[in-house]
Design a protein that fits this description.
Structural class: alpha/beta
Number of helices: 6
Oligomer: single chain
Largest sheet: 5 strands, parallel
Distance between the termini: 35 Å
Shape: elongated
Length: 195
């Protein structure tokens, strides 16, 4: 009996490791794939903000979205992200202010300001898009983030294209770690756990 239990545990752990490696490879493949094409909206995933100013990561995502918007790939940009502990500013609101300061008309920007996690932000953004009658979206984020976000938005019935932000000199070990974390997050989300 002990041997059967041990074999079952080894089998489950092995299957889980294979799934994580498989999804990590898919994430890595997606991370550099540029799929930007005409869509209803450009969605910018939030990142840290500092007292109303976008962090370098958020600024790079916003600049990339601005580039796509200026190429006229979509008539709207949506910024996302909640307060993250800031009593005054939200990532989505800071993103909107940054884009307005760069010449994007305020009426061309939709904002999601409640999401505290990727799962929450994509769910809320998907809901906003459905209410606005939007069906297709170009997702802008870090490359390792795109696969999971695409799957979450596709689950909500949207046509999704990835467009990773430009990154200067990525660190290979950090990238691999990010692929693994995103793979675990995706598998947990697929199992119904909101991570």
């Amino acid at each position: 009996m002990k041997r059967a239990v041990r074999n079952a545990i080894v089998l489950v752990v092995s299957a889980l490791l294979v799934a994580i490696v498989y999804v990590s490879v898919r994430i890595e493949q997606q991370s550099t794939r540029e799929e930007a094409q005409p869509a209803d909206v450009i969605l910018v995933l939030g990142a840290a903000e500092y007292r109303g100013k976008p962090s370098p990561v958020l600024r790079a995502r916003l600049d990339h979205a601005l580039e796509l918007y200026n190429r006229r790939l979509a008539p709207l940009i949506m910024t996302t992200g909640g307060a993250g502990g800031d009593p005054v500013f939200t990532e989505g609101g800071v993103g909107r202010a940054y884009l307005v300061s760069r010449g994007v008309p305020s009426e061309a920007i939709a904002v999601e300001t409640e999401g505290e996690t990727t799962v929450e932000s994509t769910a809320l953004a998907g809901e906003i898009m459905h209410r606005m009658g939007l069906h297709s979206v170009v997702v802008v984020s870090d490359g390792y983030h795109i696969y999971r976000v695409k799957k979450m938005l596709q689950f909500r019935g949207l046509n999704v294209y990835g467009s990773p932000r430009k990154e200067r000199a990525p660190e290979p070990l950090l990238e691999r770690w990010n692929y693994l974390k995103q793979a675990v997050g995706y598998l947990l989300w697929s199992a119904g756990l909101g991570v």
